Amino acid sequence: MYPCVSLLLLLMGRGAIPLVLSEEVKLCSKTVINSCSDCIKSGAYCTWCKQLNFIKPGEQEAARCDTWAQLIERGCMEEDIISPKNYFSSSKNISLSNTALDKGEPIQLRPQEVNLKLRPGLPHTFTLDFQRVEGYPVDLYYLMDLSYSMEDDLRSIKTLGNKLFNALQGITKKGQIGFGSFVDKTVLPFTNTNPEKLNKPCAETEMYCQPAFGYRHVLSMTGNKAEFESEVNKQRISGNLDSPEGTLDAIMQAAVCGERIGWRNSSTRLIVLTTDDGFHMAGDGKLAGILEPNDERCYMDNNLYSKSNEMDYPSVGQVANQLEKNNIQPIFAVTKNMEKVYRELSKMIPKSEVGVLSADSHNVVELIKNAYNRLSSKVTVTHDALPDNVRVTYTPLCPEGGPSGDKGVCNNVGVGQMVSFNVTVTADECMQSEISFLIGPLGMKDKLKVSLSTLCKCECNDPVTVDSPYCNGKGQVNCGMCSCKAGFVGQKCECSIGEKDESSLRAACRKDNGTECEGRGDCVCGICQCYTLPGGSTYYGTNCECENESCEKFQNKLCGGNGKCRCKNCECKPGYEGTACQCKKSDEQCRTPSGSVCSGRGTCKCNQCKCMEGYQRPYCLTCPACQTTCITKGKCIECLGFQTGPFSKNCSQACTSISEFKMVETLPPGKPCDVRDVESCRVFFAIKQLDGEDNYTAQILKTRECPKLPNIYAIIGGSIVGVTVIGILILLFIKVLFTLQDLKEYRKFMNEAQKTRWSENKNPIFQEATTTVANPTFSGE
């Protein structure tokens, strides 16, 4: 057998904690540890050695904290290793019942109470058993939608009371049934608030219609079939305006008004909800100006939900919470068109089922039986809300198996069949006080109470010696460490601080108010005593800030083997350079053809140019990101070549960067630079950068390109002629407009003249009067 395997078996046989992975070892070594309690808190596999003189001189007390195997290997005696183990006890563990009892409550879950004391990070697993007893009482609350569209369903349920009771008796002899109904809030826009419509919200032809209401509790739990049938037969249809109903209001009141409904303490509680429409939820009440959120409390007055019009609808989460809290399992009996909606709702409500109603609900009894069988055959174990630092997981031990996780699920569990779950509890951190939480199957009253606390203190059983010789007679041993008297400090209380303030002594060991001795030593009498490194060397410096083992490596050698590590920095041997002394000193690859190093615009490091910002290797010749010299040096060119421009008065001082310039007749081949001077003339030049950051030579073209002056007389004469011509054209344009207007009026006049008819008859006013008188003398007879 291999030695390491032998050691593992030896430690496991003695009740020790097994060897752990390297990551767990790191967990112990990474945490800042000042005491045994700190060690126990730092990791599930960390242990503490209380053996005196276990640590070496200059070694920190935190070295006492390590894994069991590491402490044994370093020479700590097994009996001196402190490693608290998880504690589990069952304070109440009554055997499971086989059948429902006539008196008292049957036991379906064991154990009933347990106590756990856990080390942070170390899980503990125990077994939870569940067995559904035969004949366990059932309370069924039939909650019916009485909106107008459910008229035929109401007629059916009035005839199915006997079948419903028989089905319930087939499940258990201790069955009870209750009845409630709902429609919606009696405010706009959910219900017509006209007084006549509130009193009779159904169609005019409907003779039997009850006034609008939200939720009404009709019948408390009863085992009397005749009483149930009598109350159901009294029910009448009602109505509202919109399609969604006040379903969640009704479920919430049925869940929280336990005394009014008559739920028994020890029973399977079922709500059978029948409806053919969707449901309103939280926020919909704002449509009617109802802003007060639902407070999940019971408000029943004369069996009516009294705050229906004052509180908003509850949310799905609120309903799910109260159903789980009160161990109620809903069965949604809905029409085919609503099946998808309520299946989505069922996903958000644990321990619920959905069944499809026929057109007139005649299949409701069979639907309830099937849904109950599905609910009762599925056991889902879960727990209360827990603090963030506590975790509970479940591993089902059922015939068909099941997934592990934060819920334990077993399917197809028969009555009287026992199923078990391995429950694993882990406390990730120390807790200030004991907590309690409940574990149990959803929809059942039976719960396991778990009382949980953490083990974060060491019980070292030290001898009661006030002035221990180990502490130089100035202190008491506590888990292998000295607890010094007032006025004494140090690993073994060897330092007397007298009247000095201990905090001021410790402040002397802090650099820039940081960690005491940089966390690498102990502050003894105001002086840092530095720890020893694993490699054998020690930290050093006033505050233990230096060590010679963490310098940069090259080819896996500290300082490349060409220097010495001094306080985290490499000091290179002559002829070597670099952060890890990895380079020989040379500038061969940094020299330009002209012989300069990095063109005077950088330094040579490790035989490579380290250029100034913007310049590029290999020789720092070009600077693509820099502004072009044609622009930056333009004013100096104007000043040097033609003594004009803004620098003309101090040209020699302002333009020292151009060390040499020439005035030439022609410029060398290539595109020249050009700038405009103060006289708007174009100045052409060529400029070249020499070695150095700001050092140039320039050639300036003697001849400038200046623009010709404009002919003032031609401009003035042309302007006068232009204005004159424009004026004449405007006058001609106005004349043409008037002429056209006159022509238009003339044509209009001629057209009207042609339309007039003239007569040549004489004016009767100016005609002569003519009178003819018959002479009676000459008139014939």
TrEMBL record:
GO terms, biological process: cell adhesion mediated by integrin; cell-matrix adhesion; integrin-mediated signaling pathway; leukocyte cell-cell adhesion; neutrophil chemotaxis
PROSITE patterns: I_EGF_1
Predominant location: membrane
Subcellular location: Cell membrane
MF terms (GO), sorted A to Z: amyloid-beta binding; integrin binding; metal ion binding; protein kinase binding
Keywords attached to this entry: Calcium, Cell adhesion, Cell membrane, Disulfide bond, EGF-like domain, Glycoprotein, Integrin, Magnesium, Membrane, Metal-binding, Repeat, Signal, Transmembrane, Transmembrane helix
GO cellular component: cell surface; focal adhesion; integrin complex
Topology relative to the membrane: Single-pass type I membrane protein
Occurrences of domain Integrin beta subunit VWA (ranges): 35-458
Ranges for domain PSI: 27-77
Residues annotated as transmembrane: 712-738
Residue span(s) of domain Integrin beta subunit tail: 630-711
Leader peptide range in chain numbering: 1-22
Family annotation (InterPro entries): EGF_integrin_2, Integrin_bsu, Integrin_bsu_cyt_dom, Integrin_bsu_tail, Integrin_bsu_VWA, Integrin_I-EGF_CS, PSI
The Integrin beta subunit cytoplasmic domain, residue ranges: 735-781
Family as reported in the entry's similarity comment: Belongs to the integrin beta chain family.
Alphabetized PANTHER family for the sequence: INTEGRIN BETA SUBUNIT, INTEGRIN BETA-2
Protein name: Integrin beta
Species name: Oncorhynchus tshawytscha
Lineage: Eukaryota, Metazoa, Chordata, Craniata, Vertebrata
Gene responsible for this protein: ITGB2
